[in-house]
Amino acid sequence: MPAFPADFRWGVATAAYQIEGAATEDGRGPSIWDTFSHQPDRIADGSTGDVTCDHYHRWPEDVALMGELGIGAYRLSIAWPRIQATGTGPANRAGLDFYDRLVDSLLSQGIEPAATLFHWDLPQALQDAGGWANRDTAAHFGEYAAILAGALGDRVKLWITLNEPFIHLALGHLQGIHAPGIAGTVDLFAVAHHLLLGHGLAVAAIRERPGTRVGIANNYTPVWPVGPDGTRDSATDEDRSAAFGYDLLHNRLFTDPLLLGSYPDGAEALSAGPVEATVLDGDLAVIAAPLDVLGVNYYVPTGIGWAADNVPAYPGSPVPFELRELSGFPRTDFGWPVVPDGLRELLVTLHERYPGLPPIWVTENGCAYDVPAGADGSIVDTERIAYLGQLGVGRGVHQAVRVGACGLRHPGAYPQGVLPLVPRPDQSVIGCG
């Protein structure tokens, strides 16, 4: 493992619906993921978040295990429907008490908590009222953020408003393979804009609590134009045009408004009507409030080529594109390519694209290897150790820090702890029993 600055922190990350369980206990209301996972054929093996790792009951064991592992920081997410069952109204005391105890326990172990407000588990009642396509949801999100900042902001000093809004938009509202399971939302731009507006309102609410820092965690990917064989050498000019369009959707749609104060040219193609009807006076100023941290979630580069039938993989794209599998790289057991240089390339690109880039935290990174436990219960986790050290986040971040791309005062990296509810090799850092 390369040497890092003294103030660099390693941590782990999880998501509430993936680990907490206790889906109907102590006043928690249903989320869109509860609804989605209980629908037939939504989850390949029928899994739900009803129990999962049972973290809601087993959190003392989990925190003790993190302490034994020497983890310095823990990025948790807070379940909105555990705080407000319907997404509005007064806070549920039992829900606040759970996170209050958890935060105190983390601090007692010397583990710095970082809290994510929204990791895709929108209260179902808000979805029934239109979800993120409804501007009111952004306002309710700001109110929810204010509740949590007031309750936990004296101890939680780093807040993440949204986790991967592009993934929530694309997989939840376009492809329909994540909650809320909508395939082909008519007005994707409204969903995107209200997510960003909710972020901005949450930033303002959190800043009311002195001493807190706040940011967002975006999923970023180096976009590589590739030919049908999956190599960049065979890419054509049309493939490069398609990659430019995909980069706009995946990387810039949820970053340009934050750091440049405007949407990228071409974003209007996602709107069902005039953009002015969605983006009201003052919205962009709210969205572009200065960030203390930019969270970067990185897993793999994305291969893109021009769609042969001129139909984009995502409707509304300014150019037709198709996703192409990259060739020439080893793969994890989940089938994702292991690309040693991808994270460094991504961090350098962000540094070059956005003057005055805020400090970066790598808020997610990880790999999937199906390594069985031995007879004594131990796991010889050679591939994941190699990924983190020599191939993945370790070397990529180290190289980016060396060239000044991160500009970090308090950098950190969070290998993801437990990943989505689809059958895949175990990625747990803290195992789910």
Structure in words:
With 433 residues, this protein is an alpha/beta fold. The chain has one domain: TIM Barrel, CATH 3.20.20. Helices cover 35% and strands 13% of the residues. It contains 15 helices and eleven strands. It has an eight-stranded parallel beta barrel with strand order 1-2-3-4-5-7-10-11. Helix 3 packs parallel to helix 5 and helix 13 packs parallel to helix 15. The longest helix has 19 residues. The C terminus is likely disordered.
Can you lay out the helices and strands and say which pair or pack?
Blueprint: E1 9-13, H1 16-19, H2 32-37, H3 55-69, E2 73-77, H4 80-83, H5 93-108, E3 112-118, H6 124-128, H7 135-152, E4 158-163, H8 165-173, H9 188-206, E5 213-219, E6 223-225, H10 237-252, H11 256-259, H12 283-287, E7 293-297, E8 302-306, E9 321-324, H13 342-353, E10 360-365, H14 382-391, H15 393-402, E11 412-415
Parallel strand pairs: 1-2, 1-11, 2-3, 3-4, 4-5, 5-7, 6-8, 7-10, 10-11
Antiparallel strand pairs: 8-9
Helix content: 25-40%
Shape: globular
CATH-level-2 architecture = Alpha-Beta Barrel
Strand order of the largest sheet: 1-2-3-4-5-7-10-11
Sheet with most strands? 8 strands, parallel, barrel
CATH level-four homologous superfamily name: Glycosidases
